[in-house]
Predict the structure.
Amino acid sequence: MQREETSARRAVAFPLPARLLGIAGVQPLELEVTGVTDLGTHMRRILLTGASLADFTYRAGQDVMLVLGGTPDRPLSRRYSIRNVDRPTRTLELNIVTHGVQGPGAVWAANVAVGDRVEGVGPRGKVFVNPEADWHLFLGDESAAPAKLNMLEALPASTPGVAYLEVGSPRDELAHAASDAHEVKWLYRGETAAISSTLLVEAMRSAALPAGRGHVYVAGEVQVVADVQRAALARGLAPEQISPKAYWGRGKANADRGEPDS
């Protein structure tokens, strides 16, 4: 009875800023954490619920922006890819990389508990499945895995789709509900730093590309994304057939732990 008044933690103590509510296409989200589970060694599943999820719609590949601190004039927010939304149960699933406890997003993910409250807006993001493509190829590191799996799961069984996802080890693989007609290929970098790994570039260079006009989606560290994009262009894909998205960058705050700075 007293948790709401005394012990329930709230990420911010001010109304959502008008500039966030004014973003085209988003709706306000008032959420409460209902579950926290570690997935492998570097990922945490966070389940949230709220009345606003009853009519929440999004396109696979989009994200939500949560306000974790700051002030009404300068809110401190972080964006997290949507892993899944179950509207009947009003449940939003996020899978968040948890390397260390530096940075506000990492601190929140590492310490969040059932009953905690957080507010935000969504959906955000302009990278989603191209409905006109004949086939789809997804590439990304663990920070991109939740979105890429969600996009693969959204494909019709009749449309070819493959995801190459780079993680540290087999323990870091994520479960998925993709059709048997689609494939997830896990790439293990072991002790190699994510910023030094060439696995995704090699995958782009060697992947079998079906006939027809396809689409490639790549996300992760900014320089790795650029390298994969160049490899895709070298294979004859046109720029408009590639959707690159930098989720984090070396040399930025907490970038070595895969946390975007905005």
About this structure: Confidence is low (pLDDT under 50) at residues 1-6, 254-262. The two ends are 36 Å apart (CA to CA). The chain has two domains: 3-124, 136-257.
